[in-house]
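PROTEIN DESIGN WORKSHEET
SECTION A - STRUCTURE
LENGTH: 361
TOKENS:
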């Protein structure tokens, strides 16, 4: 079988080369060609011997996803649609800001977790992305953006739940951090999770990076409704997992994401309950104005409500920022990523409950 070299982190690349009878240091050379220089043609890797290039040509390719959509919003936010197979395409978003450029990367084609306010969840789920498809988004974005290294940060906040696909996400993260590949610092790579506790523990063990946790509610009754995964991993257990994560984390705080839903989770009382809940944990709140989509059933909290909610958190000594909405004109904002996913789950309430029950403990 032909290997895709974008699938290999340093260890896997060494193993692959050993299989071809090559020395481990060749892995470093290959990673640099592929990820630092963005090269996809083995024939052009001029410092590899003709013999090695010949052997590689028979056994491997460098194959990123295919670009099938590319749009730019007035604020410079750029969204690509990358085709990963005959049935599925995924979204990747680049968000330029003064002094930094953030790439928002997808981890799955769709998502099984079906949070009430998320379009990705509503689209259903098809499959996990492979390492080449995850790191390939960064590889392609770098190439398509051109110029001087515009990507300074990566957030795993695109389509899917990264902690349900760690087998492929961890090697992709390792490449993002590898000095022979993208060389990003652990603090500039963020994984966002809806609260998959075993995944948080495993990430801390295998590849600790900055962590964002989608909290969205101050109590289990409401969180059960908004984030159905809460029925399996309720708030108290989630906060304990956050504390464990902090022992290994590259940053000394967890970011809590909190989507602002008008009349649902945005009252003064809920802000106070949230402050009480988070009080003793080192954390920062990132309030995300809800991004609407047809038939969502939710409305965005008005700006003055969001400001007041943030004010209550700050008065309790917490840090709270509000995420600026970017790229909604091109459906590139948080929760608006639908890609093109051929749903293989049957979207019923009973089905969702069963899938959550089946998630690996
Ligand atoms: N599955 C992961 C990461 C992808 S979602 C997670 O849930 O954390 C990235 C962020 O966008 C999450 O905080 C998610 O709750 C939020 N989000 C989802 N739908 C949204 C919407 N319609 N408006 C605003 N934020 C949304
Ligand atoms: Fe999945 Fe995250 Fe959307 Fe929930 S918010 S459905 S976990 S992508």
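SECTION B - SEQUENCE
RESIDUE ASSIGNMENT:
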């Amino acid at each position: 079988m032909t290997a895709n070299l974008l699938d290999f982190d340093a260890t896997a690349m060494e193993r692959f080369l050993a299989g071809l009878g090559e020395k481990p240091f060749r892995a470093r050379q290959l990673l640099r060609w592929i990820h630092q220089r963005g090269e996809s043609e083995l024939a052009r890797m001029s410092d590899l011997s003709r013999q090695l290039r010949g052997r590689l040509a028979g056994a491997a390719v460098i194959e990123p996803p295919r670009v099938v959509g590319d749009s730019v919003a007035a604020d410079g936010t750029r969204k690509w649609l990358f085709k990963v197979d005959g049935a599925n395409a995924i979204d990747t978003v680049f968000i330029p800001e003064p002094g930094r450029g953030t790439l928002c990367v997808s981890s799955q084609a769709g998502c099984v977790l079906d949070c009430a306010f998320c379009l990705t969840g509503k689209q259903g789920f098809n499959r996990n992305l492979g390492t080449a498809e995850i790191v390939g988004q960064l590889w392609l974005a770098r190439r398509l953006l051109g110029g001087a290294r515009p990507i300074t940060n990566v957030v795993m906040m695109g389509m899917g739940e990264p902690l349900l696909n760690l087998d492929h996400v961890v090697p992709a993260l390792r490449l993002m951090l590898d000095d022979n590949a993208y060389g990003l610092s652990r603090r500039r790579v963020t994984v966002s999770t809806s609260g998959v506790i075993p995944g948080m523990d495993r990430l801390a063990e295998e590849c600790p990076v900055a962590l964002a946790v989608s909290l969205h509610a101050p109590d289990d009754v409401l969180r059960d409704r908004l984030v159905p995964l809460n029925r399996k991993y309720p708030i108290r257990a989630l906060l304990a997992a956050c504390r464990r994560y902090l022992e290994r984390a590259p940053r000394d705080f967890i970011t809590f994401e909190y989507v602002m839903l008008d009349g649902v989770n945005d009252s003064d009382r809920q802000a106070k309950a949230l402050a009480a809940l988070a009080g003793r944990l080192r954390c920062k709140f990132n309030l995300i104005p809800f991004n609407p989509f047809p038939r969502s059933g939710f409305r965005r909290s008005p700006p003055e409500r969001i400001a007041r909610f943030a004010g209550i958190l700050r008065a309790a000594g917490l840090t709270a920022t509000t995420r600026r909405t970017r790229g909604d004109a091109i459906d590139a904002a948080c929760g608006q990523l639908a890609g093109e996913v051929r749903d293989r789950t049957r979207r019923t309430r009973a089905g969702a409950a069963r899938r959550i029950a089946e998630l690996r403990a």
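SECTION C - NOTES
The chain has a mean pLDDT of 93.
Residues 111, 113-115, 118, 120-121, 160-161, 194, 214 surround iron/sulfur cluster (ligand 2) (CB under 6 Å).
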